[in-house]
Amino acid sequence: MNSFSFTKMHGCGNDFIVVNTFRETVPEDLSALAQDMCQRRFAVGADQFIILGSAESADANFRMDILNADGSKVEMCGNALRCAAVYAKREGLIQSDELKIETMTGISFATILEDGNVRIAVAVPSTTIVDVGLDSEHPLFGTPLSAEQYTFPMTAVSVGNPHAVTYVDEIDLLNLEKIGPLFEHHEVFKNRANIEFVKVIDDHHVEMRVWERGSGETLACGSGACAVAVASVLHGVAKSPMKVSLKGGDLEIEWEGRGKPVYMSGSASFVFDATWSY
Predict the structure, then answer these.
(1) CA 56, CA 39: separation in Å to the nearest integer?
(2) Which residues of the chain have pLDDT under 70?
(3) What is the pLDDT of residue 230?
(4) 129-260: what fold?
């Protein structure tokens, strides 16, 4: 029997299994491994599975690859970036509080702050058809989108991965188990999408729930919070800096406007270290 060590972490309740392949050897079929380990109640349980290893770019400190609980690959994840940063510092992969993490979408810049939170330069957001991955002749910008009996005005935003944002009067009453999959798999999204439902509290504060592509409803989604902030600024319903409240906690998002990167600040927490045998 073989085994490897891993660490359980979370960012605002968005939880991850983190494996350091600088030190550990894992099975070749990472998709099957992620599905096995991410099962709740029957295994470790997590929203996503993170692999840290050598970067292809000499400019990055290391590479982070991510798989969803269903085994599908993820371009990037804001909460995972924060967790990877503090994990790397604890494990001695970096010495500085400033680092560069390579993902499928390129290199993200992270800073570990004095209070232990992490500030990430997530991406330069885009609303174009190509960047979001839309099977459409026009971008989605407050555009009504229907699935079965549900219709929501959707704004599609890419922050390295695809999101669709909609505004509602009440988020707590939504049946996300029913609604989420319908829009995640909507035919307009070539590679599926993360779906965010947002309630505006005031000019600098919004609340959201998220249905994550490949994971279902999660307590937090960092890239989703960034997409929500971008959409809210573009629609003029809220301003930067913006507090985005999720089920698992609050994130602080900053965005100066088109052509500028979106920044996210928030916590990253260790849960436990353990060993997986296979």
Answers:
(1) 31
(2) none
(3) 98
(4) Diaminopimelate Epimerase; Chain A, domain 1 (3.10.310)
Determine whether the annotation assigns residue 212 to a binding site: yes
Report the DSSP beta bridge partners of residue 254: 263
Query: Computed over its alpha carbons, how large is the radius of gyration of the chain?
Result: 18
Q: Specify the CATH architecture of the domain 3-119+267-277.
A: Roll (3.10)
pLDDT digits (tens, 9 = 90+) for 103-144: 999 999 999 999 999 999 998 999 999 999 999 999 999 999
Distance in angstroms (rounded) separating the CA atoms of residues 195 and 156: 9
Distances (CA, A) of 5 to 8, 33, 44, 102, 135: 10, 14, 12, 22, 42
Q: Which segments within 69-142 are labelled E, that is strand?
A: 73-74, 98-103, 106-112, 118-123
> pLDDT at position 103, please?
95
Distance from chain centroid for Cα 111: 17
Q: Is 53 annotated as a binding residue?
A: no
Distances (CA, A) of 155 to 139, 158, 161: 8, 10, 14
pLDDT value of position 245: 98
177 marked as binding residue: no
Q: Could you tell me whether strands 216-218 and 194-202 are parallel, antiparallel, or unpaired per DSSP bridges?
A: unpaired
Cβ-contact 114, 265 below 8 angstroms: no
CATH 3.10.310.10 placement within the chain: 3-119+267-277, 129-260
**What pLDDT is recorded for position 117?**
96
Is 114 assigned a ligand-binding role in the annotation?
A: no
Q: Per the structure block, which two tokens stand in for 206?
A: 């919004």
Distances (CA, A) of 162 to 188, 246, 248, 270: 12, 19, 21, 28
> What residues pair up with 98 in beta bridges, in sequence order?
111
Residues acting as catalytic residues: 77, 221
Q: Give strand pairing partners of 35.
A: none
